[in-house]
From TrEMBL:
Keyword Calcium: no
Organism: Frigoriflavimonas asaccharolytica
Superkingdom to which the source organism belongs: Bacteria
Annotated signal sequence range: 1-18
Name of this protein: Outer membrane protein
Pfam families the UniProt entry points to: OMP_b-brl
Boundaries of every Outer membrane protein beta-barrel domain copy: 9-202
Keyword Signal: yes
Highest classification ranks of the organism: Bacteria, Pseudomonadati, Bacteroidota, Flavobacteriia, Flavobacteriales
Keyword field: Signal
InterPro entries for this protein: Beta-barrel_OMP, OMP/PagP_B-barrel
Length: 202
């Protein structure tokens, strides 16, 4: 399923006071906001899943072609399974922080291509409840990714953004003594890795 990113810039727009640039595109000194705000609800038979995500990002152009930034995120997932006589519930809360760098080709024009390198750290609390009895587990995660993207300005300050595919490494480990990490390398270029978003520049 495609991941459609709804920019947190929309929610933050009313909080930002800034003058519009004269022309579309990015120049040195520009700051931009993007990110994800979303809620999904799915039902398959007796299994129901609700997921809420908020993940704003802020970037700054330190040179005509290079932008650096930070991001943070929170995701809550709740799943209920009633396929048997005993109800099973799974809930997780995930917090993440990260940093990224981008190199833009023709950033001062309406259309540009960029490559992004990002590194992220997160921790997750997972609760499994079976028949009213709960057990908790905590996990730590780290990942590094490289992804290409495109940017197209639809007005002086708003742009559409798309990224797809990933070349990355991730490590996932339970937060207990002696636990072994699960390490993965990933290369993906299919449409399931497509992310669409909106960027606000000020």
């Amino acid at each position: 399923m495609k991941k459609v990113i709804l920019a947190s810039a929309i929610a933050l727009f009313g909080m930002v006071s800034a003058q519009e640039s004269e022309t579309p595109g990015f120049v040195k000194g520009d700051t931009f906001i993007t990110g994800a705000v979303g809620f999904t609800n799915s039902t398959q038979g007796e299994v129901k899943n609700n997921t809420f995500t908020i993940a704003p990002s802020v970037g700054y152009f330190v040179s005509p072609n290079i932008a650096v930034g930070v991001r943070a995120g929170y995701t809550n997932m709740n799943e209920t399974d009633k396929t048997t006589s005993i109800t099973v519930e799974n809930e997780s809360d995930t917090f993440a922080v990260g940093a990224f760098g981008r190199y833009y080709y023709t950033p001062a024009s309406r259309f540009s291509i960029f490559g992004e390198l990002n590194a992220n750290y997160g921790n997750q609390k997972f609760t499994n409840t079976v028949g009213g009895v709960s057990t908790d587990a905590k996990f730590n995660a780290f990942d590094v990714n490289i992804a290409p993207g495109v940017n197209y300005f639809i007005s002086k300050n708003f742009a559409l953004e798309a990224t797809w595919g990933v070349l990355g490494y991730s490590s996932f480990k339970q937060d207990v003594a002696g636990a072994e990490s699960q390490d993965n390398f990933n290369i993906g270029l299919d449409l399931n890795d497509l992310s669409l978003g909106l960027v606000y520049k000020f």
